[in-house]
């Protein structure tokens, strides 16, 4: 299988925040943002693998800034690292300033998707070759995040998470 670059998987969703999608403070409801990010991540995972993909885990979400009603929200999802059958997807969320058009970073998240066959069984995905400095940083840190996610899910013993442990002992 031929390796791919992160830019080959990029998925960008731009949409408005409408009244039915907000909390009592008139900011975007967290669950709505999670769903939008899941959709964008799913497209990125599919573009990388060209397979059916399922969400295996939401590894990290930071709701750093509220997103007000009426905002134009852009969600950019890209595969940051692949393993055997799983893919880490890094998601950046931007709000566009109405007057200047400048996009400011509002939130980010990291999801894990798994490619599966028609019966739902995990199937191998192409490798990934990071190109930019940011892509390389995200690629390098992804193994620690995978180990943390597996430890928290009870699928890996903490003493087997060698890269993760090294973070605390270096
Ligand atoms: C995700 C799923 C396919 C994993 O199946 P599984 O039987 O656990 O298969 P495996 O143990 O071989 O795991 C497959 C890959 O997922 C990874 N994985 C599984 N759980 C994970 C987690 N919590 N965090 C990170 N990676 C995880 C494994 O490490 C493995 O990666 P690798 O092959 O790249 O090394 C299966 O649990 C599933 O179908 N879940 C439901 C998915 C779904 O419906 N999502 C929508 C939610 S409504």
Automatic annotation (TrEMBL):
Q: Keywords in alphabetical order, please.
A: Hydrolase
Which is one GO molecular function term here? long-chain fatty acyl-CoA hydrolase activity
Indicate yes or no for the key word Hydrolase: yes
Q: Which SUPFAM superfamilies does the annotation name?
A: Thioesterase/thiol ester dehydrase-isomerase
Superkingdom of origin: Bacteria
Does the keyword Hydrolase feature in the UniProt annotation?
Answer: yes
* GO CC annotation: cytoplasm
**A Pfam family reported for this protein in Swiss-Prot or TrEMBL:** 4HBT
Q: Which GO terms describe its biological process?
A: acyl-CoA metabolic process
Which PROSITE patterns does the record match to this protein?
HOTDOG_ACOT
Q: Where is the HotDog ACOT-type domain?
A: 7-119
Q: Which family does it belong to?
A: Belongs to the acyl coenzyme A hydrolase family.
Question: What's the protein called, per UniProt?
Answer: Acyl-CoA thioesterase
What is this organism's lineage?
Bacteria, Pseudomonadati, Bacteroidota, Flavobacteriia, Flavobacteriales
């Amino acid at each position: 299988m031929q390796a791919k670059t992160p830019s080959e998987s990029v998925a960008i969703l731009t949409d408005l925040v409408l009244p039915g999608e907000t909390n009592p403070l008139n900011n975007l409801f967290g669950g709505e943002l999670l769903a939008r990010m899941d959709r964008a991540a799913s497209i990125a995972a599919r573009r990388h693998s060209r397979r059916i993909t399922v969400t295996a885990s939401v590894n990290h979400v930071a709701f750093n800034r509220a997103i007000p009603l009426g905002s134009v929200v852009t969600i950019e999802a890209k595969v940051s690292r692949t393993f055997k059958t799983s893919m880490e997807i890094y998601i950046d969320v931007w709000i566009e300033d109405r007057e200047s058009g400048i996009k400011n970073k509002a939130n980010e998240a990291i999801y894990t998707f798994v490619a599966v066959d028609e019966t739902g069984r995990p199937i191998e995905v192409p490798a990934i070759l990071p190109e930019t400095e940011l892509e390389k940083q995200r690629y390098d840190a992804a193994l620690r995040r995978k180990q943390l996610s597996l430890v928290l899910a009870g699928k890996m013993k903490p003493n087997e998470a060698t890269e993760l442990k090294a973070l605390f002992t270096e």
